[in-house]
Amino acid sequence: MTTELFDKVIDRTNTDSLKWDKYAGQNVLPMWVADMDFAVAEPIQKALVQRLAHPIYGYTPANDRLVSAIANHLKREYGWEIKHDWIVFLPGVVTGLSMSCRAFCQDNDRIMVNPPIYHHFYDSHEGKRQTLEKVHLHKVDGRWTYDIERMKSACAKDLSMIMMCSPHNPTGTVFTEQELRQVGDMCAQNDMTIVSDEIHCDLVIDGKSKHIPTAVACPEHADRIVTLMSASKTWNLAGLNISFAIISNSYMREQFVNTCQSVVPMTAPLALIATEAAYTSGEEWRQSLLTYLWDNYKKIETEIDTIPGLALEPLQATYLAWIDASGLGIDNVQGFFEEHGVGLSSGEQFGQPNYVRLNFACPASLLNDALQRIRAAVTTLKS
Ligand SMILES: Cc1ncc(COP(=O)(O)O)c(C=O)c1O
Fold first, then answer.
1. pLDDT per position as a tens digit, 46-58
2. Which of 117, 118, 124 to mutate to test the pocket of ligand 1 (most atoms within 8 A of CB)?
3. How far is the C-alpha of 292 from the C-alpha of 281, rounded, in Å?
4. Architecture of the structural domain at 46-281
5. How far is the CA of 329 from the centre of ligand 1 (A)?
6. CA terminus-to-terminus distance, the chain
7. What pTM was estimated for this model as a whole?
8. Mutation test of ligand 1: which of 31, 93, 171 has the most ligand atoms closer than 8 Å to its C-beta?
């Protein structure tokens, strides 16, 4: 499959797009929230159209075909053999984070998170019942990773859970087996539940790194792990609202399901259909996507390297470039670039104010435009 299909600029006006409508009527390119400006893979759209042709959209549980498609994908990609009944469907990964806090934490419990991190890691706990223990990632050989010694020290405060983001948003790190095992061992030693958000697992783009599910890296600790996944980031289905938790420990799974009862809605039939098509017929499209995204990332690298005051962080996975803008010496970096026609995500949202995050899952022509605007914006600082 050629990557040229990703070059096509698709007008998203009049689709009520969160990403594009933020700047409706303004000359600002939206490079913020994590959805892609690419059409979904053809088999996904076909499956949806076929299902839509039947005019009844009633309550629809996940069927065996979908569950098998997920299990086969996990086996093929990660060598992970799961039992079908370990899967719990949810309308979103953020729902999975929130439900985990509610199911596995008590009053006054402490939960570890590792900033900078996707902003919902800061608000998924029950603010009045649990507190967050923030242990920042640190940079080793130019790559953001866990500061395991500081994490172990923090465990002295009697933590009950960690929420991991693997691969990591916004730094783009793919954690190694050794890094994951260190975290797994630390959690086992301190009797902590592990919630591993792996929504970006199928988006390793550097052609070298390999995502390893935390439960695969630490099989001996699998009975304390909740894995959260979805086809939504990789196959651009975010608006369909679907994800799933994989929980091998039957006691934990029951606690989790009971917590969701009467609160979390069933997933929608269209979301189930799209997910099945993604895992069964979306692989060729995904491979082309990964190539295209890596080319886009390389463009950003080439440009940003020559813009004074900006430094691009090396990235292994995701379509979200993490850019250090501290060299610009301005307070509101996001606002500055927005004024100059590029809508980025503010680093502050993730816990690192001098950074911005650029979503590069868009046609190369749009990305080039955004990069030229960024260059022009920085040039104004000199004059
Ligand atoms: C790490 C991470 N988790 C969860 C989500 C959102 O997942 P959902 O829309 O399924 O709640 C995102 C979206 O960008 C993300 O980056």
1. 999 999 999 999 9
2. 118
3. 19
4. 3-Layer(aba) Sandwich (3.40)
5. 31
6. 47
7. 0.97
8. 93
